[in-house]
Amino acid sequence: MTESDNFLHLARPLGSAPVGSQTTTAPLNVIIQPQAIFSILDHSLRRNVDQERVIGTLLGVRSEDGQEVEIRNCFAVGHTETQEQVEVDMEYQKQMLSLHLKANPKEVLVGWYATSAELNTFSALIQNFYGGQGDGTWPHPAVHLTVSTEAGKDIEARTYISAPVGVTAERAADSAAFIPVPYEIRYGDAEKSGLELISGAKDSEDRTSNVLTDIESLERAIEEVLGMLERVSKYVEAVIDEEAPPSSALGQFLLNALALAPKVDPGDIERDLLATAALTMGAGDGLGSGQANGAGSEGAQRGGGQRGGRGGRGEGRGGRDG
Known about the structure:
The chain is of the alpha/beta class. The strands form two sheets. The chain has an eight-stranded mixed β-sheet with strand order 9-8-7-6-2-3-1-10. Strands 4-5 form a two-stranded antiparallel sheet. 44% of the residues lie in helices and 17% in strands.
């Protein structure tokens, strides 16, 4: 899933910095792993009834140029929030961050999350803490991930970075201009299978889903491939008939995909399939019996030849005795 909105990126300072220090540019893309989303949703389900949102710390990796951030993990941070003030357990956050970085030394602090799409003054305070110097992400901007968890509605995620605003340092401490950045939820083949299994339970009354066998998984995968091929074929036919606008990027992608297909004779594929079926499904009983009969005949010939040879040697001995 890729966020398709268009964003305008502005070059801006990242806050007060010592003289002579150099800041990096903002990330152009944020990658989110599914396990991080699941952890956030689990935290939201376990929140108190009177809490409108919960927050936590995001961890992951950052590219060398700082223009891409991958969110791999997260942990909850306790906080209380009212209309007048917000309190965050920063000491707990620092201890948990230290323990996590010891267990996963390749990961770093990248930002924080909240289970609400609302951005307010308290969000600016927390954002400035996570993006500050010392225990924050400085000189890199902190990523703020919002995940909407309203019952009965689709889950919607947004990612932001921030720029400081305010004419004084005191005013800038509780103010921030949130700038949206594109994101992508990326997962591998193994994670895709698990997500498809989980999504299959949404249509069941008891919210359960049966694990497919290997043959059933193969059958479903083949059906999905056939469906994608049919969709691509319809699109190509629509472009040829001038019913759909052509896309050079999509055409190049399809050309590269076709170039990866091996050039194999269909007859060879059919022969290999028949041979595989004969070996795996027991269809080669006649072949096996023929091999057994052949082996038996060969053994009989060998035995007869050996006996005949012995007889000849016996006759030879008899002649010498005579």
